[in-house]
Design brief:
There is one protein chain. The chain has about 280 residues and is of the alpha+beta class. The chain is built from seven helices and 18 strands. The longest helix is centred in the N-terminal third of the chain and has 18 residues.
Length: about 280
Amino acid sequence: MTRTNDNGIAHTWEKDGYFISRQLFTQAEMDALREHFMELHEEALEPDGEMRQHYAPRLLEECDNDLLKHYPRVMQPHRFDAISLRYLLDSRVGAALKVLLGELPLAAQSMFYFKPPGARGQALHQDNFYLRVQPGTCVAAWTAVDDTDSQNGSLFVVPGSQYSKVLCPHPADLSRSFSTEEVDIPEGLSPVEVKMQAGDVLFFNGSLIHGSYPNITPNRFRRAFICHYVPQNTAAMSAGYYPLHDFEGNQYTRASAEGGGPCGTEETALLETARQQRDVP
């Protein structure tokens, strides 16, 4: 089935599980957002800086050659940064999501990835493994802040995998992935690279398998601002993502998704312990 969004751009959301909105944001906006997060990073390196209560990168000499300890992800910046909240609730994103979801969206998460030269990628995964939206799934809006290609670690997606159930992952290769979990590609499907320019936004289904490889360039970042949204009819999800926000700024809470998810309670606990050990600053 093919839909048409408000800008008249035909796409195959149902078939492939993703849609690219080219130049949804301007180059000037991405230049400003890039500079903003680089400044936040520098502020967070100050031992007494206010930013360290929200984001705590290590000094380079403390990183044991792991650049992602110096440039870790900024998690949920919309909770403390007005510019991040503005982009999370941008009306252009909201209009696209309303078409893709067929109903009003609610915002659940924001993240900023730096991915500096030499950094590892992120193993193939499904976002709804973490958000655990019930019923249905979440939708990601992955905004390229830098141009992306295979050299600096562009995103790969597996078209059609959005119709797979949410899979229980296995341990990832930590020499190539900063995340600890990885899922296998279902038989008959193949990953495709999504090359993007700064300002492009990739929308994709929360069950779509996706990931990236290391940044092998000597001097190019691959920064991205990534947000997750859920349908207004969401009844439950992982409690750590509350409160939800509508695009008017109102806040909501739903029930907490209980149980161990696709891995079962014991395996989920082991994966959570591995994640916590990875994220210790």
